[in-house]
Specification:
It contains 17 helices and no strands. It is mostly helical. The model has no long low-confidence stretch (mean pLDDT 86).
C-alpha cells in the first residue's frame, strides 16, 4: 500500500454532503456573508436542528429561544459553525469503516479539538484554526480502514488506532502514517495549504521541517483525549505526557489535573472537566 493508492481514484474519496462542500469552499472566501451561510445550513434540516439545539444549550447561557439559523450563527459564530459543520460532514462521509469503533473515535476527536482550542486560547495561536485541525487530524485513519481494511487489520491486532505509538507503527509498515493521509485528503478537498501542512505533522510535531505551534497544540490535545477516552491512570498520564512538545510551546505542565498535582509551579489554570468543554457538541457527531 502506498499513499497515492488511498486517494488516487474518485470512488475512494469520501463523499461530503453538499452543505459541507459549500462550507469548505467558504474557508477560502472572505466574501461569504452570514445570511448566505444561514441559507446553506437551512437547506439541511437535520444539521440545522443540531445547530439550533447547540445554540439553545446551557453552554451559551442564552436568555431567549434561538429559532433561526441566522440567530444561531450570531450565537455560535461563523467560524465555529463552519468547524462544526465540517466535523459533522466528515462523520457522515465515513459511516462504514471496518475495524473502527466510530463512536469512540469521534468522541476522541472532539475531546482533542476542545482541548487544543482551550490551550490555543492561552497562547497567541488562532484557536479556531486549531479546532479545525484537531477535528480533521485523524481522518486519515478512517480513510485507511475504509479503502484498505485488509492492510491495516494486522496493525489493529498489534495496537489500537488510538495508541500514541500508532503513527510510528504505520510509518514502519507503510512509509507513511495517518497524518499524511489526512493531509492528502485535505489537499483533495482543496483546503488551504497551511492547514494541509499542519495536518501532516500533528502526530510528530518535532519532526517537522519547521515547528508549527498549531500542530503541537493538537498533539497535546490528542494526549489529553486519549487519557480521557482510554481511562488512563494518573501515573500513565504523567509517564506519557509529551514534555518535549510542551516545552517547545513554553507551556507549563500544570494545565491538566494529573500533572498539576505533581507540578512545583502552582498557580496555573487547570483545564475544566471534559464534559464542560464539550457540552452540547457531541450531538453533531451522531
Amino acid at each position: 500500500m502506498d499513499l497515492k493508492s488511498l486517494i488516487d481514484e474518485p470512488h475512494k474519496l469520501p463523499t461530503i454532503p453538499k452543505v459541507g462542500q459549500q462550507l469548505i469552499a467558504s474557508f477560502s472566501s472572505d466574501n461569504a456573508s452570514r445570511s448566505e451561510i444561514a441559507q446553506q445550513l437551512a437547506a439541511d434540516p437535520a444539521l440545522s436542528a443540531k445547530l439550533l439545539k447547540l445554540a439553545n444549550s446551557a453552554y451559551f447561557h442564552v436568555s431567549r429561544t434561538i429559532g433561526t439559523m441566522d440567530a444561531a450563527l450570531q450565537i455560535l459564530g461563523m467560524v465555529m459553525v463552519r468547524n462544526l459543520v465540517l466535523g459533522n460532514s466528515v462523520a457522515v462521509a465515513f459511516t462504514a469503516t471496518p475495524g473502527m469503533d466510530l463512536p469512540q473515535f469521534w468522541r476522541y476527536n472532539l475531546y482533542t479539538a476542545c482541548t487544543a482550542r482551550w490551550l490555543a486560547d492561552r497562547t497567541a495561536v488562532n484557536s479556531d484554526r486549531v479546532f479545525t485541525l484537531a477535528l480533521l487530524h485523524a481522518i486519515g485513519q478512517l480513510q485507511m480502514h475504509a479503502v484498505a481494511p485488509q492492510m491495516v487489520a494486522p496493525l489493529d491486532q498489534q495496537m489500537s488506532v488510538l495508541d500514541p505509538g500508532r503513527a510510528q507503527l504505520e510509518l514502519q509498515a507503510f512509509g507513511f502514517h495517518y497524518g499524511d493521509v489526512s493531509a492528502a485528503l485535505a489537499q483533495a478537498w482543496n483546503f488551504p495549504p497551511p492547514l494541509i501542512e499542519a495536518l501532516r505533522h500533528i502526530a510528530r510535531p518535532l519532526a517537522a521541517p519547521e515547528f508549527l505551534e498549531a500542530s503541537a497544540l493538537v498533539h497535546l490535545g490528542t494526549w489529553r483525549a486519549r487519557a480521557e477516552v482510554l481511562g488512563w491512570t494518573e501515573d500513565r498520564q504523567v509517564m506519557s505526557y509529551p514534555f518535549d512538545v510542551a516545552e517547545r510551546l513554553h507551556l507549563p505542565p500544570d494545565w491538566t489535573p494529573a500533572l498539576a498535582v505533581h507540578s512545583q509551579l502552582g498557580g496555573g489554570q487547570v483545564m475544566p472537566p471534559m464534559a464542560e468543554l464539550t457540552d452540547g457538541l457531541e450531538d453533531l457527531f451522531e
